[in-house]
Write a structure and sequence with these properties.
single chain, D-Maltodextrin-Binding Protein, domain 2, five-stranded mixed sheet, 18 strands, 20% strand
């Protein structure tokens, strides 16, 4: 999809001059192209592409004073399903900005360097310092329950992607040889979905949102989350360095638009999850799983040390995969001057944000008691088809009991969300394992092995979603 429009001058708009501006060249009576490559279906890029475009946020921040007084902006949007074609068009001079993950982003830097030019990573859009977002799934009816079950199996993955790096690290952690102990094949997400349905592969490793989208659509089951690898991952935005040097204020304008998109989705994640669904076809509950409170990833626009390290790791892994032999200096490839200036002009404290590792907070009252929820590892959320906002419950048992009544009266759900009791990882309720103890408490886990261990500790029993719901309803009825 290519969207193109010329933006006229905004009367009275102002923008502070950049202290770090490297070029003082005139832009009078000039048409400045702002060509942005997006990945709409990679939903954690939404604040750097889809939402800016759909909400026309860039228009608010493009400069129209000083050297930009008489310019016309030729804003172009082009959507891609992965980072590689964005890089191709950036190197070919057809795009100025691009959104992509750490691995393809590193390949972007390499491609520019080979062409005798330079690109720079200017911001993180969304990520996880633990690695959540990448994951491994198996067919829905598979007998496999953990990565330890994958020895000797065929695993597909998009090669040279951030999920490929996760898979290699996960295999290494098992003490396996990736060349002999497993059969790794390359497969794009759209191909893998059909392969999972037909049981043609044993497992598939992928990036946002497919490790959660496939389970939501009922064709796969998640057995490994990237957080288990404790290897940071992120998606972010890059720009042609020469473009940024010539038009630094335009780069800051783009980043200010990303900041506003980030603020808007934090304020109303349900509304904007529905917009993402309308635009991409990725169902709103999957979008909310990432962008809602306590989501799988944090929408973090700062260059935390873990994300800088993730970039270095990506470059090293790509060398290991023989995808590049070029040395890329992370210290100059990542350029935080533009995002720092964007924070400043938006009235925000970059250094405070840099130190903040918290997830998007949940500030909510229990839907049954009305009391504020303080314990978030067991919080459960229910999103009904008929309601604009997600309901919040202090525990799975409480939510499942309420859900039983809702369903008996004909109510339908978009989704039910729980949290892994050990890690706090947000999950779709029908994908989790549950431990029911002697007192009727219900606790959710991503992995069956984790549920088994906890059940032994509390003398409980491990059950699946349907049994957990039934048990909660029966416990309420017996009171």
């Amino acid at each position: 999809m290519t969207i193109r429009y010329a933006l006229p001058k905004l009367i009275g708009a102002t923008i502070a001059p950049l202290a770090f501006a490297l070029a003082a060249g005139t832009a009078h009576a000039e048409t400045i192209r702002v060509a942005i490559g997006t990945q709409d279906t990679t939903i954690n890029c939404a604040t750097g592409g889809l939402l800016i475009r759909e909400l026309h946020l860039l228009d608010k921040y493009l400069p129209h004073t000083g050297k930009y007084k008489d310019v016309t902006y030729d804003v172009q949007w082009k959507d891609f399903t992965s980072g590689a074609p964005i890089t191709n068009e950036m190197v070919a001079g057809k795009l100025d900005f691009g959104t992509m993950a750490d691995f393809p982003g590193s390949l972007n830097g390499v491609a520019f360097q080979k062409a005798g030019r330079k690109s720079v990573f200017i911001t993180v859009l969304s990520g996880s310092v633990d690695g959540s977002g990448n994951g491994i799934v198996v067919p829905e009816n598979s007998p496999l329950h953990s990565i330890a079950d994958l020895k000797g199996k065929t695993i597909s993955v998009p090669f040279a992607s951030t999920s490929h790096g996760m898979l290699l690290r996960a295999i290494k952690a098992q003490g396996w040889n990736p060349d002999t102990d497993v059969n790794i094949i390359t497969q794009a997400p759209e191909v893998a979905g059909s392969a999972l349905k037909a049981n043609k592969i044993d497992a598939h490793a992928d990036f946002v949102p497919f490790a959660d989208l496939f389970p939501y659509r009922g064709i796969a089951r998640k057995i490994y989350d990237g957080a288990q690898s404790h290897a940071p991952t992120y998606h972010g935005a890059l720009v042609d360095a020469a473009y940024a040097q010539k038009y630094p204020e335009v780069v800051v304008a783009y980043l200010r638009a990303a900041i506003e998109a980030n603020q808007l989705i934090a304020q109303d994640p349900e509304k904007y999850s529905l917009l993402i669904e309308k635009t991409t076809g990725i169902e709103a509950p999957v979008d909310y799983l990432y962008h809602g409170p306590l989501g799988i990833q944090t929408r973090d626009l700062t260059w935390k040390p873990e994300y800088r390290q993730a970039t270095a790791t990506a470059i090293d892994t790509l060398k290991l995969l023989k995808k590049t032999d070029v040395d890329l200096d992370v210290n100059t490839f990542i350029d935080d001057r533009y995002i720092r200036e964007a924070f400043k002009e938006s009235g925000l404290d970059y250094n405070a944000a840099l130190k903040n590792y918290a997830k998007q907070p949940l500030v909510a009252n229990d839907a049954v008691t009305g009391k504020p929820i303080h314990d978030f590892n067991d919080v459960t959320q229910v999103w009904l088809d008929s309601e604009a906002k997600v309901r919040n419950y202090a525990s799975p048992a409480e939510a499942f009991a309420a859900l039983g009544k809702i369903e008996q009266s004909g109510g339908k759900t978009r989704a039910v969300f729980v949290h892994d009791h050990s890690s706090g990882l947000k999950l779709f309720a029908n994908q989790a394992w549950y431990v029911k103890d002697a007192h009727g408490a219900i606790t959710a886990f991503l992995l069956k092995a984790s549920a088994d261990r906890y059940a032994q500790q509390v003398s409980g029993s491990v059950v699946e979603y349907a049994a957990a719901k039934t048990g909660a309803a029966q416990a309420v009825a017996a009171r």
